[in-house]
Structure formats: structure tokens, C-alpha cells
UniProtKB/TrEMBL annotation:
Its cofactor is heme. This is Cytochrome P450. It holds the Pfam family p450. The keyword Membrane applies. PROSITE patterns: CYTOCHROME_P450 (PS00086). Heme binds at residue 462. It comes from Pleomassaria siparia CBS 279.74. GO terms for molecular function: heme binding; iron ion binding; monooxygenase activity; oxidoreductase activity, acting on paired donors, with incorporation or reduction of molecular oxygen. Belongs to the cytochrome P450 family. The chain crosses the membrane at residues 22-44. CDD domains: CYP60B-like (cd11058). The keyword Secreted does not apply. Keywords: Heme, Iron, Membrane, Metal-binding, Monooxygenase, Oxidoreductase, Transmembrane, Transmembrane helix.
Length: 519
């Protein structure tokens, strides 16, 4: 039998002989090109990238989507902690991002410029866009080092210990209002998150604008505060997502109108309160804006009204919720550790009268100070990292030269809970901060206290650190001087499983307040 011929020329018509069908179509070619591109980016990031020598999850080395996924779910702090436990004190958390927990990294990452070590820039991944303030920056999101320094200089007096002493009676007024509200609430379960927030928001509004928000007196959130809480989580997510290519437009389309309005309520409220404050000439107390205006008059750098608005806005966020969060953590930790609570109560109640429990006295209460440090360690009010972009030209971090624009940071939660940094890191042991307590020598010898910076460090550290410590001491000491507290059963596990969107997303913390017993 004759065999069929398979040669094109012998058996196929001419058109088939050219066989155009075997050539891939354009979409397939494009797909292949995309695949080759992605594959080479992956290989480059995993093998040849300057950060490829650092350990970490492979997916994170390839794409920032890994972090984005956990961030949007509110579990980024846990995810980062897991990576540090698995890979050690330096972990690659993104193609251009490294996370650290070593105390030695603090100065290199957030410290001042020294010799040939440059100061790194604040990373603005989670900052509000300055378009909300017509392009003006606050001290928080001012990237330019010189302009940032000028703004900080204008605020130094306002946040100094001297200015705080002059505010003591104003702050005491709110401490008394808190005590009155606690007394009124005695017996019934109360949400401590609200109580502490009422106090810190009232104090900050008075410090910044010379007016109370009336949270403590009204026993409810002022609508301004309520709108801040309503918009915070979404605001942080939007701030982060807007850095992704093409996302700004999409976010603008999908963000509910009500959320945009909430954000603008906060902006409008702080602008209006500032206008009212600036129009007043009768303010005798040296409040924040009074001291800034005074400095401006002396010829120190000037601050635009737009930047004043942006700063007022940031004070009402950074200077309120953080301190209240620290107080919530302290409340829960003390109630779960009755032996530590007893030591605190004994120390504070040894002060014979509430009048004597003043700023100076509280500074010298050793156990109170130790409790606050330990609370900030076990439940840091800012649990995430304060990110920095490596300075132009690159910079050396822990002996290694990193390329510019590498994003670096120290996750407070991971650094403060690392067994490499603290002995028995998850336990609440205020005595670790009392160095003459011989019983805890093991802690004193082991703990790497120099790396503990809950307010960060360097030129962009927390501007309100003194104020925060003052408020923490005054509110906590007066509360325990007056009352006994009990944790309600539903809040037994309050510290567990909390989500974070840069700050903690705190559930209610239910406590019972009782007049103190005078045994
Ligand atoms: C327990 C309470 C507080 C904690 C734990 C805390 C912590 C922090 C941290 C970690 C930073 C970031 C620093 C960095 O990026 O390196 C910061 C910045 C800042 N905080 Fe606080 N803070 C607290 C209370 C306050 C208060 C009461 C104010 C008062 C207004 C305040 C105002 C600010 C400002 C303005 C910045 C930006 C400073 C700058 O960029 O120059 N904070 N804070």
C-alpha cells in the first residue's frame, strides 16, 4: 500500500504549507512576555537584589502584596512578629523593606545625623495626604529635614517640662473630672477605653485650643471624637493603599461618601477650633499655640496657617488615642497581676492627700514609673514600626550598607517581646525597671533596656513624650489613689487577639470601679 506523504509540498495545498496557525497569537505572545518579565523580577529579587542576602519569607522578598494582605486584615504586627521569631532580628519583609528588632539598630535607623552617618527620612506610607491641608505639612509628615527642624523648633517650648508645669492645674482639673465620673460610675460595669479616651481628648483640646470637648462632663464622646474613631481605620488603609499604582483613583471611586465626610469633619473641626483660639487675646495660660505665636514674634521661623491646621489635626490624633491606649493596657495588666497592683496602690496611697499627689511628687514615685515603663513595653501604644527611608546615597545600618530608599523600621511589639532583648518578655514585671531591687537582678543583667524606645528616638521622636508621661502618671496615680478596680469576666482576655491598623483596634475593656477601701 502506498504510504501517505507527510511532506507539506507533496500533500497539502499551498496555503496550509506556510502554516500560519503554528505561530502564537498576539495575546499569547504578550502573556509570555509578562510571564518572562515577572519570572525575571522574581529571580532578581530573590537572588541578585542587594537585599537578597537577608532572610525572610520568599513571597515577601518578591512582592509587597504579602505585607499588604496582612496589613489590610489587621494582623501585620503578628505577621512581622512571626517572621522575626522564625528568621531572627533582621528580616526582609518586602522587596525593599527590612524589619529589625536589635537595640543596636535604633540609632542607625531613627537617630540623628552623626559623622558620616546620615539621618534617614520618615517614610510616609501611612501618613495622611497633605492635600487635606492644601499641600501644607504637619511636623509628622514634613519630609524635608530642614523644614521639619524649623517646625519642631517652634514647638519645643510648648512641649517642654516648663510649659507642662504651667499647665499642671489645667490637667489636674480634668483628672478631677475623671475621678468624679469614676465615682458616679462606681458599681456598674464601665468601659475603661471610653473613660481614658474622654480624659486624654479633653486635655489635648484644652492644651491646643483652650476649650474642653466636654467628654468627661457629658459622659459621652463629643461628635468630633466620635467621627475621628469612625474614620480612623479606613483612613489608615486609604493612606497606605494610595501609594499603590493606580489606586488613588479607584479608592476615590469606592470610598463611601460618608467616610470622606467623616475625614473632612475632623479637618474642619480642628481648623475651626484653631481659628477660634487664634482670635482670642485673653489666654493667660501658656498653651501650645500661645507659645508658638510667641516664638514666631521673636523672629524664629514662621509657620503657615495651613501647617498650623495640619499640626492641630495631628495633635488631636497623635496626642490622645496613644496615651489612652497606654492607660488601657496598664489597666488590664495591673488587674491581671494583682500583686503588682497592690505594690502600686501601696506606693500611691502612702501619699497622704490627693493634693500632695502633684507633678513633682508623682515623678518620684518609683514603682509608678516602673509600672508605666513596663506597660509601654508589654502593650506598646504604638505597636508597629516607625518606618524610615534610607537616605539618598545609601546608609549603614548595623554595619551593612543599604541602598537609598530601602524602607527600614523596628516593630515595637516584636522588639519589646523578643526573648533576645528581654528576660521573660511576655510577663508584666515592673521591677525590671527598678535597678536597685536585687531580687530581679536576673532581669537587670539580661534586659537590653537601651533599645527600649516606645516614643522612638532621634530628630523625629515623639514631640509629646513629656506630656504623655505626665498624663500617664497623673491619670493612673489619681485613679488608683481614689478607687479599687476589678476586671469584668468578659474582658479577661482583652490583651489577646487584638488587631492593629498601625494603632490597636481596641475592643471594650469592661471594669468595675469601687470606692477605695481604707483597711
Ligand atoms: C503613650 C503615648 C504616646 C506614645 C507611645 C507616642 C509615640 C510616638 C511615636 C512612636 C512616634 C513616632 C516617632 C517616629 O516616627 O520616630 C510619635 C510621634 C509623634 N507624637 Fe507621640 N506618642 C504618644 C503621645 C503623644 C502626645 C501626648 C503627643 C502630643 C501632641 C504626641 C505627639 C506626637 C507628634 C507631633 C509626633 C510627630 C513628631 C515628629 O515627626 O517630629 N504624641 N509618637
Amino acid at each position: 500500500m502506498e504510504q501517505p506523504s507527510y511532506t507539506a509540498s507533496a500533500s497539502m495545498p499551498n496555503s496550509a504549507a506556510t502554516a500560519p496557525r503554528v505561530l502564537p497569537s498576539l495575546p499569547i505572545l504578550l502573556l509570555c512576555a509578562v510571564f518572562v518579565y515577572i519570572a525575571s523580577v522574581c529571580v532578581y529579587r530573590l537572588r541578585f537584589h542587594p537585599l537578597s542576602k537577608y532572610p525572610g519569607p520568599r513571597l515577601a522578598a518578591i512582592t509587597d502584596l504579602a505585607f499588604a494582605y496582612y496589613f489590610l486584615r489587621g494582623t501585620a504586627v503578628d505577621w512581622i512578629d512571626e517572621q522575626h521569631r522564625r528568621y531572627g532580628p533582621i528580616v526582609r519583609l518586602g522587596p525593599m523593606r527590612l524589619g529589625y528588632t536589635s537595640p543596636e539598630a535604633v540609632k542607625d535607623i531613627v537617630g540623628h545625623q552623626t559623622g558620616n552617618h546620615k539621618a534617614n527620612r520618615r517614610n510616609l506610607l501611612f501618613s495622611q495626604p497633605n492635600s487635606m491641608f492644601d499641600g501644607h505639612n504637619s511636623v509628622f509628615n514634613e519630609e524635608n529635614d530642614i523644614l521639619h527642624r524649623q517646625q519642631r523648633k517652634l514647638f519645643t517650648n510648648a512641649f517642654s517640662d516648663r510649659a507642662l508645669s504651667a499647665q499642671e492645674s489645667m490637667i489636674q482639673n480634668y483628672v478631677d473630672k475623671l475621678v468624679a465620673l469614676m465615682r458616679k460610675s462606681a458599681g456598674a460595669p464601665r468601659d475603661a477605653v471610653k473613660l481614658w479616651n474622654f480624659a486624654t481628648f479633653d486635655i489635648m483640646a484644652d492644651l491646643a485650643f483652650g476649650e474642653s470637648l466636654g467628654n468627661l462632663e457629658g459622659d459621652e464622646y463629643h461628635p468630633w471624637v466620635a467621627s475621628m474613631f469612625a474614620g480612623f481605620k479606613l483612613g489608615v488603609m486609604i493612606s497606605y493603599l494610595q501609594h499603590w499604582p493606580g489606586m488613588s483613583l479607584l479608592l476615590d471611586l469606592i470610598t463611601p461618601k460618608s467616610a470622606k465626610e467623616e475625614a473632612m469633619v475632623h479637618v474642619a473641626n480642628s481648623n475651626n477650633s484653631l481659628t477660634k483660639r487664634l482670635e482670642r487675646t485673653d489666654v493667660e495660660r501658656p498653651d501650645i499655640w500661645g507659645l508658638v505665636l510667641e516664638k514666631q514674634k521673636k523672629g524664629d521661623a514662621q509657620m503657615s496657617r495651613g501647617s498650623m491646621n495640619a499640626n492641630s489635626n495631628i495633635f488631636m490624633m497623635a496626642g490622645t488615642e496613644t496615651t489612652a491606649t497606654a492607660l488601657c493596657g496598664l489597666t488590664c495588666l495591673l488587674l491581671k497581676n494583682p500583686d503588682k497592683m497592690k505594690k502600686l496602690v501601696d506606693e500611691v496611697r502612702a501619699v497622704p492627700s490627693k493634693e500632695e499627689l502633684n507633678g513633682l511628687k508623682m515623678r518620684h514615685l518609683k514603682y509608678l514609673g516602673a509600672v508605666i515603663e513596663e506597660g509601654l513595653r508589654v502593650y506598646p501604644a504604638v505597636p508597629a514600626a516607625n518606618l524610615r527611608d534610607i537616605a539618598p546615597g545609601g546608609n549603614v545600618i548595623m554595619g551593612d550598607h543599604l541602598p537609598e530608599k530601602t524602607v527600614v523600621g523596628i516593630s515595637h511589639w516584636s522588639a519589646f517581646h523578643s526573648p533576645l532583648n528581654f528576660h521573660n518578655p511576655d510577663a508584666f514585671v515592673p521591677e525590671r525597671w527598678i535597678l536597685d531591687d536585687e531580687e530581679y537582678k536576673e532581669y537587670h543583667d539580661f534586659d537590653k533596656r537601651h533599645g527600649f524606645k516606645p516614643f522612638s528616638d532621634g530628630p523625629r521622636n515623639c514631640l509629646g513624650k513629656n506630656l504623655a508621661y505626665y498624663e500617664l502618671r497623673a491619670l493612673l496615680a489619681h485613679a488608683v489613689w481614689h478607687f479599687d478596680f476589678e476586671l469584668c469576666p468578659e474582658s479577661e482576655n482583652w490583651l489577646q487577639g487584638q488587631k492593629t491598623w498601625q494603632l490597636w483596634d481596641k475592643p471594650e475593656l469592661m471594669i468595675r470601679i469601687k470606692e477605695r477601701s481604707y483597711e
